Amino acid sequence: MSTQDSDAASTAESATRTATGSDADTPTAEPVVDLSGVTFGYTSTPVVTDVSLAVDQGEYVAIVGPNGSGKSTLMQLMLGLLEPDAGTARLFDESAVRFDDGERIGYVAQHASAAKEMPITVREVVKMGRFAHLTLDRVGDLNRDTIGALREAPLETVRAGLGTVPAIVNAIFGRLSRSDLAIVDEALETVGMSAFADRRITQLSGGQRQRAFIARALASEADLLVLDEPTVGVDAESVDAFYDLLGALNDEGITVVLIEHDLGAVVDHADRVVCLNREVYFDGPTEAFVESDALARAFGTEARVLTGVDG
Q: How many domains in the chain?
């Protein structure tokens, strides 16, 4: 990051702290994502180098960079799908690679459109978001011995006297309760897909499929929504509606981390931009990113055409 970019980002960060009444004496929550000096390579050549960044609860952050810049790799490091060669990656204040509270994360993959080959309905896709909640650890009033017995010999233990406890049966057999199904219906309604609930994924447009996968994330009651170039192959009208939905979800408090190739969409919608090309070229408010030279340094001169920025 250049001195000019660093100063701009630091000034904006200071202004944000002032506006929100935060200072050194005010306790703050741990970041949702916290990377410190992260370096990773699939071979001896690093794909990302010495990357440090933190994403706080409720932020809307876009990660941009040219093809091959390490954006998707950085996302996998954030989510603990890859372990850094150097540095640390933390997720909800835990080691990212050891984090196992998957229900807190909603992930929409770059190639979610591949799901168009799956012979399942939209409702069935969204129901998947509830399965992470069907665990014995969430059943109240069970001691460790009982939980251990249920895990080791579930059928025998249920038959021995716990078969009348619905939550236990649901956890063992993967059955959704009425409250689970209500959450599924609410997620479908939130993304505007209730009318398509019984339609097969194979019959949806690209934008509708992405909405279905966001509904799955909402059904899991995720705190963090991570999207890897979700609008690839989606028509322009659907893209606008898609970003309106993301903005509404962020307004409700969901943290959004978006990897996006469309710089114009990033400028229009994201509050903060991380510009990456193996290393971080810029990290700060969107307005400061547009005015910085990070575009030219990371993307080349064609970046201004992509964003529609003249100055």
A: 2
Indicate whether 20 pLDDT > 60: no
The answer to whether the predicted template modeling score (pTM) of the entire model surpasses 0.90 is no
Mark which of 150, 175, 200 sits at the end of a domain: 175
Same domain (yes/no): 80, 45: yes
Per-residue DSSP letters for 175-192? ---HHHHHHHHHHHHHTT
Beta bridge partners of 35: 53, 89
Q: What number is the average pLDDT over the span 59-76?
A: 92
Q: Which domain holds residue 159?
A: 135-175
User: Which has the closest alpha carbon to 226: 86, 58, 48, 106?
Assistant: 106
How far is it, in rounded angstroms, from Cα 228 to Cα 196? 24
b/e burial code for range 56-78 (CB count within 10 A of at least 16 → b):
bebbbbbbbbbeebbbbbbbbbb
Distance of alpha carbon 189 from alpha carbon 185, whole angstroms: 6
Strand 48-55: give its sheet, edge to edge: 48-55, 33-40, 86-91, 94-95
Give the chain's length.
Answer: 311
* Secondary structure of residue 66 in the 3-state scheme: coil
Q: Per the structure block, which two tokens stand in for 118?
A: 């799956």
125, two tokens: 């896709």
Q: What's the pLDDT band for 259 if we cut at 50, 70, 90?
A: very high
Widest distance between CA atoms in the chain: 74
Tell me the per-residue pLDDT of 213-229, one tens digit each, with 9 for 90 and over: 888 888 888 899 999 88
CB 219 within 8 A of CB 229: no
Please tell me the number of Cα atoms within 13 Å of 191 on its side-chain side: 28
pLDDT at 94 over 90: yes
Q: CA dihedral in degrees (213, 218, 222, 225; nearest 10)? A: 50
**C-alpha radius of gyration, the chain, whole number:** 22
Please check whether residue 79 lies inside any domain of the structure: yes
